[in-house]
């Protein structure tokens, strides 16, 4: 299979594709594909780019692997047997036609090195047409396509097909809290995973909406992009700002201009927010209208006042007074720059850690935890708390 003197050596052109953006090919790739009588693929039915090439008018041909002969059974050669059979078939086709164009796809990760090793021995050439660097977010399109397939009425997943906006709501809440937990623990691998789970819920909801003819993921992304551009005129237009406070002020003004149907200070605040977050949000919005405490001493005094009222209240009014105390504590935290939800979760983690340490300490000392006296519990508590 050596080329004759003065003739061009057989050549195999490998065109790289992207599973995430199957229709995105650079000019050089389209030029190579369009110049070939046919485009060879491992499996046109399974290749993500096959449909795009078909509608472009290109003829697609499946490569039939060549059988390996005894002289091909050299274990020192690179590649799996499947890749070696495919490489041998491509080189034989190139010898017959001069040039053969092959579209790389799923399962072809080892074909290039395998083909290169065989081509060198046979005096043939291998040319790669690489993709340009994919833009950030390219993998997002794969997620959209996966959800579309899962919701396919004929070939989708029965569980996914049963879901609607309401049934998915609980998962969005759960995944959001799992993300917050990962963020607070500061474990990057967990943050990455939980962000993916939250993103799944967003795309899933958008696919449900598309299936009922309401809107789709492109409408969602277009809407948020347009909103971000509108509300950042200091970045995308010629507005000048002096620090983050100016940015927040402009944001609020632009938002108010857009939400003309909202007339009250608390319009748009979901009443289903977690309690502490709801209190903080309402107090923050009231503060923007001028109702706020001065410094940190006034909120601290308010906490003491509400605590006294709670302790003096009878059973009928204790719930109300306890709520007032929580509101005062949230107000104090806001003036100190403390997120009440974050502080409450941190307190929960600390309490859990200390109580588990108490149980471990009791077990180490063979103390019966189901029969410990109050004084013993307090002694254990002070002991595990001391290192803090």
From TrEMBL:
Domain NTP pyrophosphohydrolase MazG-like, residue spans: 163-236
GO biological process entries: dATP catabolic process; dGTP catabolic process; dTTP catabolic process; dUTP catabolic process; response to stress; TTP catabolic process; UTP catabolic process
GO MF assignments: nucleoside triphosphate diphosphatase activity
Classification via InterPro entries: MazG-like_dom (IPR004518), NTP-PPase_MazG-like_C (IPR048011), NTP-PPase_MazG-like_N (IPR048015), NTP_PyrPHydrolase_MazG (IPR011551)
Pfam family, one: MazG
Matches recorded under Gene3D superfamilies: MazG-like (1.10.287.1080)
CDD domains: NTP-PPase_MazG_Cterm, NTP-PPase_MazG_Nterm
Coiled coil spans: none
Name of protein: NTP pyrophosphohydrolase MazG-like domain-containing protein
Organism, scientific name: Egicoccus halophilus
């Amino acid at each position: 299979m050596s080329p004759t003197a003065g003739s061009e050596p057989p050549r195999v052109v490998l065109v790289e594709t992207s599973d995430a953006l199957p229709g995105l090919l650079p000019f050089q790739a389209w030029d190579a594909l369009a110049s070939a009588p046919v485009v060879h693929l491992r499996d046109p039915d399974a290749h993500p780019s096959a449909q795009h090439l078909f509608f472009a008018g290109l003829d697609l041909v499946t490569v039939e692997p060549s059988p390996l002969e005894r002289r091909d059974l050299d274990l020192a050669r690179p590649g799996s047997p499947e890749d070696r059979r495919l490489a041998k078939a491509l080189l034989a086709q190139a010898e017959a036609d001069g040039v053969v164009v092959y579209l790389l796809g799923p399962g072809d990760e080892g074909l290039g090195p395998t083909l290169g090793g065989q081509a060198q021995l046979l005096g043939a050439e291998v040319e790669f047409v690489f993709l340009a660097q994919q833009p950030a977010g390219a993998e997002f399109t794969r997620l959209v396509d996966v959800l579309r397939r899962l919701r396919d009425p004929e070939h989708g997943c029965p569980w996914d097909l049963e879901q609607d906006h309401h049934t998915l709501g609980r998962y969005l809440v759960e995944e959001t809290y799992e993300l917050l937990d990962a963020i607070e623990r500061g474990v990057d691998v967990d943050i990455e995973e939980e962000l993916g789970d939250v993103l799944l819920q967003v795309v899933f909801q958008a696919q449900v909406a598309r299936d009922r003819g309401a809107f789709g993921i492109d409408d969602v992304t277009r809407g948020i992009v347009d909103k971000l551009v509108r509300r950042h005129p200091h970045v995308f237009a010629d507005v000048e700002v002096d620090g983050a406070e100016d940015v927040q002020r402009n944001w609020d003004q632009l938002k108010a201009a857009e939400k003309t149907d909202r007339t009250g200070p608390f319009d748009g605040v979901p009443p289903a927010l977690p309690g502490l977050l709801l209190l903080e949000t309402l107090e923050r919005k009231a503060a923007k209208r001028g109702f706020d405490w001065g410094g940190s001493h006034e909120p601290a005094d308010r906490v003491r006042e509400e605590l006294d009222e709670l302790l003096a209240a009878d059973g009928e009014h204790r719930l109300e007074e306890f709520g007032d105390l929580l509101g005062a504590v949230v107000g104090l935290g806001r003036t100190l720059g403390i997120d009440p939800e974050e502080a409450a979760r941190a307190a929960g983690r600390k309490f859990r850690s200390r109580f588990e340490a108490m149980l471990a300490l009791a077990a180490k000392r063979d103390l019966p935890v189901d029969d410990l006296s109050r004084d013993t519990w307090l002694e254990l508590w002070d002991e595990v708390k001391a290192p803090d």
